[in-house]
Amino acid sequence: MIRLRLALSIYQQFRRASGWFCHPRKKGPAYRSGGEPAAMQAQWASFHLLGKHIMRKSGMVVLLAVFVLSGCVATPPQQALITSPFDASATKIMLGKGSNTIRGSALIRQRGGGVVTCAGQQVILAPSTPYSNERALVIYGSTEHGYRSLSSSPGGIAFIPDPQEYQTLTLRTVCDAQGYFKFEQVANGSFLVSTKIAWQVVDYKAEGGVLMQRVTVMGGETKEVVLSPH
Predict the structure, then answer these.
(1) Residue 89 is part of which domain span?
(2) Are 115 and 109 in contact (CB under 8 A)?
(3) How many angstroms separate the CA atoms of 32 and 28, rounded?
(4) Which residue in 80, 117, 120, 206 has the fewest CB atoms around it within 10 Å?
């Protein structure tokens, strides 16, 4: 029983430490000169001491190796073939200045009742074209509106082809602290508005997903949209 508890303890220590090791974050004040977060160094020290004790008492080298290998298994991306060509010229025309405004918000209601918004997240306004519509169909199963959870494709989606111009020929903004965004001087036409809402739970697992809504504007109007899973 004691050995089982020790094994469980070291596994929990490793899971916390591997959250940094396998999914490193951007450097900030929490990082020491050695390049590792201070909390990570403490976790690895505890993990090392527990591991030595278990191996000395019960020789569980294989078990430790399994823990280490299982913590960093990479999930390959889902591949998606796009048959519609990307028309950069038509996309540039749709991104010209106009007199319309698109504004809105994005939110996800958690199972416990809490609400998470897109505060601080990037919002993308992409012209609706055959290429972008086909990509949306892969991601959301719809070209009108949709939601895709992060857990549904942990390795992401690799689009073929994935022209660099598709990423640059968009309008972008950032949700404010209340989860609102605005695009001004938008040309006439149809656009796909998308953003991501994510938060972390135990073991640094990310929950949430990406949301999309089609918006059509004409003649200097202002359209308001709310992006949500339902």
Answers:
(1) 78-227
(2) yes
(3) 9
(4) 120
- Asked whether 212 and 227 are in contact (CB, 8 A), the reply is yes
Are 34 and 88 found together in one domain?
Answer: no
Question: How does pLDDT run across 12-43, given as a tens digit for each residue?
Answer: 554 554 444 455 444 443 333 334 344 444 45
pTM: 0.70
Supply 173's token pair: 């903004």
Does residue 194 share a domain with residue 151? yes
DSSP state of 74: P
Residue with tokens 């695009």: 183
Q: Are strands 78-81 and 157-160 parallel, antiparallel or unpaired?
A: parallel
Cα Rg of the chain (Å, integer):
23
In this structure, are residues 139 and 77 in contact, taking their beta carbons and an 8 Å threshold?
A: no
| Contact yes or no for 160/80 (Cβ under 8 A) | yes
Q: Are residues 82 and 65 in the same domain?
A: no
Distance, in Å, from the CA atom of 140 to the CA atom of 125, rounded to the nearest integer, reads 16
Question: In sequence order, what DSSP letters do the residues of 139-200 get, joined into one string?
Answer: HHS-SSEEEEEGGG-TT-EEEES--HHHHHSSEEEE--TTSEEEEEEEPSEEEEEEEEEEEE
Q: What's 84's DSSP letter?
A: S
Q: Which residues pair with 197 in a beta bridge?
A: 209
**126 and 82 both lie in a single domain:** yes
* 146 closest CA partner among 193, 105, 79: 193
